Amino acid sequence: MPAAEDYYNVLGVARGAPEADIRKAYKRLAKKYHPDLNPGDKTAEERFKKVQEAYDILSDKKKRDMFDQYGFYSDQTPPPRGGARGNPGFGFDGFDFSDVFTGARGSGGPRPTPNAGGGSFKDLFGQFFKGGAAQPQTEPERGADLEYALDIDFWQSIKGTQVKLSIHRQETCVECRGTGQGSGGVQTCGECDGTGQVEQMVGAMRFSINCPRCQGRGKVGNQCFACHGEGRVSKPDTVEVRIPPGAQAGSRLRVSGKGNAGTMGAAAGDLYITLRVKPHEFFVRDGDNIEIKVPVTVSEAGLGTKIEVPTIDGRAILKIPQGTQNGQRFRLREKGVENARKQTRGDQIVEVYIAPPDTADERVRELLRELAKASPADPRAEIWSKV
């Protein structure tokens, strides 16, 4: 059926973009619009479907070639009259195709015209206008990787955890074992005698093209009822994932073989999990270091003392020196996050701020007045001297 949109625009890539760029664009957009990451968002769901459709066409060489030629892909509809999007200025009106596409023959001798025996006229026509070169037969293709965003809390990221994810992935069809063929088995294609290629005469020119009946496979058979010939079906799956201790927000974990199944027995893709960590109320992580702000009283800051401060391992003793200033920072060595890769541990940074006393009590106000008399120096004097 005609494409509602330009598949290249859907993925945001240029025409002629290499497969790697198309795959990279698909991964980025699939991750952005995946229904699991946008629950209840119908717009994102529709966008995700368009991205999937675009990737399905542009990642398949035969489908992509047809889309480039005619601006659409269909298994049944012949090329539109009046020109093709991939061939601007070439008109088809008034062109008698029955005079051109005759005399197809394979290695076994004369064959009927392409429409006979179940062949697709549009495939033969498309290959003719691609220059007549024989297209490669379908080969096993590794399954696509999947992306998943996982929310964990602060303590799960620090200590590590084990989680079970429910995902949807394409698995090899159990009914046909990934062949896409139904009951009756697979037989040698009678159109090309199993070679996958037929010859086409156009006037005095001879072209070798993919057999329109078997699509270059050399084999034919009934389509599997379960997967409709795809060889794969979409199913829910539960994946158990270990989150290592010290995992950071943005960390990307790989679960081998848990992406979509490959075609024709090829390896499955991988599942990539991106972590999103919920912030803690008091602790702030900076790399492998942990930061926290802790209040001290005026007397503790002025006279000095020892206080207990929270760490990710429990309580620790911090010495507050005499005359500590508001905002002063202290370091607790190796009280931060363990880094398994480096075999090191970060520090904890404690920033103290001076909490003002409760002035609702008259005795407290009297003591503050006495303090002001005992220490009459202006703390802003240095500023005024330089303004």
Q: Which tags fit this structure?
A:
single chain; 387 residues; HSP40/DNAj peptide-binding domain; four-stranded mixed β-sheet; 23% helix
Provide an overview of this structure.
- The structure is a single chain.
- 23% of the residues lie in helices and 29% in strands.
- With 387 residues, the protein is an alpha+beta fold.
- The chain has a domain at 284-386: HSP40/DNAj peptide-binding domain.
- The strands form seven sheets. Strands 2-1-6-7 form a four-stranded antiparallel β-sheet. The chain has a four-stranded mixed β-sheet with strand order 12-13-19-16.
- Helix 2 (19-33) packs antiparallel against helix 3 (42-58).
- Mean pLDDT is 79; it is low at 76-137.
> What's the average pLDDT?
79
| CATH homologous superfamily heading of the domain at 284-386 | Urease metallochaperone UreE, N-terminal domain
**CATH fold group of the domain at 284-386:** HSP40/DNAj peptide-binding domain
First-last Cα distance: 76 Å
Radius of gyration: 35 Å
What's the β-strand tally? 19
Strand content: 25-35%
N-to-C series of helices and strands? HHHHHEEHEHEEEEEEEEEEHEEEEEEHH
Enumerate the strands of the largest sheet in spatial order, edge to edge or round the barrel. Answer: 2-1-6-7
Helix fraction, binned, reads 10-25%
- Major beta-sheet overview: 4 strands, antiparallel
* Tally of helical runs: 10
Q: Return the structural class.
A: alpha+beta
Shape category: elongated
By CATH, the architecture of the domain at 284-386 is named: Sandwich
| Low-pLDDT segments, ≥5 res | 76-137
CATH class of the domain at 284-386: Mainly Beta
